[in-house]
Each structure stands twice: as structure tokens, then as C-alpha cells.
Amino acid sequence: MNDFIDLAVEQFARDHTEWESALHVRLREETYRVMDRPQMQVDAIEGRFLKMLVRLTEARTILEIGMFTGYSALMMAEGLPDDGRLITCEVDPDAEAIARRYFSESPHGRKITIRIGPALETIKTLSGPLDLVFIDADKANYSNYYEASLPLVKPGGLIVADNVLWSGKVLDPKDADDHAIVAFDRMVQSDPRVENVCLTVRDGMMLARKRK
Ligand SMILES: C[S@@+](CC[C@H](N)C(=O)[O-])C[C@H]1O[C@@H](n2cnc3c(N)ncnc32)[C@H](O)[C@@H]1O
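Above: the input record for the complex with S-adenosylmethionine. Below: its predicted structure, written as C-alpha cells.
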């Protein structure tokens, strides 16, 4: 679903994007069947875009903040080399149970390590260098996730954040999450440590490349 692009145009783009694996289709369908707020999952285009970013950056070490049922983690893992690794953070045991089942069915699942617990605590236990970080958890902590992970990112590495247009609410922020996203976007935009671009892919994706 895309709030910004005509649905037929969106469908055309999907039809001209590398297709989801059968496993991803099943994971999406189960997520929509059994989980509250399944739309939190990235869609097929954003998933393929994440995989493409992994390929383009030749990332070997990825941190994901906000796994949910594992769709984006599995997409990025597909783009990793055989010895690549992805650490993904989650707090919800129901989401974890689903993700673990699908990771075990995928040849890429062994690249993924799930860390259950508040992501800010998990990040404290990590050492870099990280090639790519994907921020997609609670919006209130977006700026904290960015500040905590940027020192671990290698020079030239990438931080990607999802939902940075927040269904357009960035134009008229009202509640705490709206304001947190706007604050995050402003912070990245004014951060001399990175080069950045705010994309209108799906609900908005911020790409911030750490300067060398
Ligand atoms: C938008 S969803 C992630 C979607 C996932 N990237 C995908 O595409 O399938 C956000 C997830 O972040 C998790 N989350 C929320 N607060 C968290 C925290 N403090 N630490 C780790 N995960 C958290 C939620 O339980 C939820 O599953």
C-alpha cells in the first residue's frame, strides 16, 4: 500500500519488480491473517529495495531495529553473501515465533540472529563496524536509534529509516509519534556526519550515508 502514489501505478511498479519468493508470499499472508497491524510489514517493493541496497553497498553486517514477523529481515538476508550476518531486534514474542519459523525454512535464515529485548539495550552490547542499519521500530525512539547506531556504522556505511513521511502527518504533526518523526527527519537533514536523501518510497525512507 502506498498513500502517495496512484494504486494502478503502484501495481505497475510491483509487476516490474523482482517478485517475492513463495516463502515471502506465505509470510505476508500469515502475518495479515494472524497479527494485529500487519501493515507494519514493509511491502514487496520496499522489501526488494532493501535487498537492492544490501547488494549495492555490498553489506556484510546489518543491524535491523524492528523485526516484526521477519519479512524485511529475510529480504535483506537474501542480499547478503553466504558469510554475511544480520542482527535483528524485537520485543514481541508472538512476532518472534512467526519469524523464527520462516527463517528456519529459508536458506538465508542462518545469517539472521534475533535479539529479543528493547533495541536500545541490544545496541549497547554490539560492536561495529556495521555496513547497514535499518530503523523500523517504535517511532519515539527513532532519533535515539540513530544516535546509538551511527558510531557503530563504518565510514561510508548506510542508515535507512522507514516511515519518515508517516502517511503525510509530517506536514501537520499532532501526536508524539508525529513529532518524533519530524524531529528525526530534521536531525538527519542537519547532521554534518552524513549525506542523506528522503525518498517517497511507500511511507517514506530516509537514507543517510556516513561520511568517510
Ligand atoms: C514496523 S514493525 C517492523 C516491521 C518489519 N521491519 C517488517 O518489515 O516486517 C515495528 C516492530 O518494532 C518492534 N518494537 C517496538 N518497540 C521496540 C523496541 N523498543 N525494541 C525492539 N523492537 C521494538 C515492534 O514490536 C514491531 O514488531
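Notes for the reader.
Residues 40-42, 66-69, 71-72, 89-92, 95, 118-119, 136-138 surround S-adenosylmethionine (CB under 6 Å).
The chain has a mean pLDDT of 96.
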